[in-house]
Amino acid sequence: MKKLVLTGAAGRLGSYLREPLTKLADTLVSTDLVEDIGKLYDGESYVKADLSKLDEMMAVLEGADMVVHFGAIGDEAPFDDILQSNIIGAYNVWEAAYQQGVRRVVYASSIHAVGMYPKTEFIGTDVPHRPDTFYGLAKCFAEDLGSLYWDKRQLESVCMRILSAAQVNNPRSLGSWLSYDDLIHLVETSINTPVTGFSIVYGVSNNDRAPVDNHKASFLGYRPKDNAEQFAEKVLAESEHLDPTDLTHMCQGGPFATVEIGNSGLANMNVVDDKKTT
């Protein structure tokens, strides 16, 4: 590819994607809301741009082959905040991609689009939406937007329903963990697969306790290697007995399944900010 665009490049997950994505295109344009993203990798440039402004997305995506869309509020928040960043922002990315002739949107969706399903159901990529928050609702919107733009405008998309790309430090993460290496592999396969149409795939590592089924997305070639079971003995020894009637422990969305709508879900999670520094 000549040009690849990464939104949300200043975020924790974006920090791990920047360098690998420079290997897939002549130019990687990283974008976010910060003034300066710091040291750039060879072949990378940075443009400050606001997802909620269509004209800025149009400018960033001009001449791009694909866009990897990770930019958004990464937590539950009041609806007006989610509306601007996660819903209008998604529309602006897909609409600008269509107008600029971009081939594919590779989108960071989330397990929270189906977060109210019990973990005991081992859900596939084709289950109906069942969001747990406004944040999850916005992911449902973006997935449906991707489906619409494929059906009506032939703009491909891969919606990666990421479970938890963070350190394994609680019982839920023994099933939901997505290692950074597997995250990179997932994004690369979503880019390199010759034809995707509109596709959904779960972003989860090869965990013994994974609560989701990816077999209908096998054509993408995503074959995760890491397994959270290596952390199980320590995590379980340090954990209190879990109440099986508590939706926090029973549902795919974890704490997002019980938090009051509009309030932070991450506030109830011990997510370590291990952002990569160049």
TrEMBL record:
This is NAD(P)-dependent oxidoreductase. SUPFAM superfamilies: NAD(P)-binding Rossmann-fold domains. It comes from Leucothrix pacifica. Keywords: NAD, Oxidoreductase. The lineage of its organism: Bacteria, Pseudomonadati, Pseudomonadota, Gammaproteobacteria, Thiotrichales. Gene3D superfamilies: NAD(P)-binding Rossmann-like Domain (3.40.50.720). It comes from the Bacteria. GO terms for molecular function: oxidoreductase activity. Pfam families: Epimerase (PF01370).
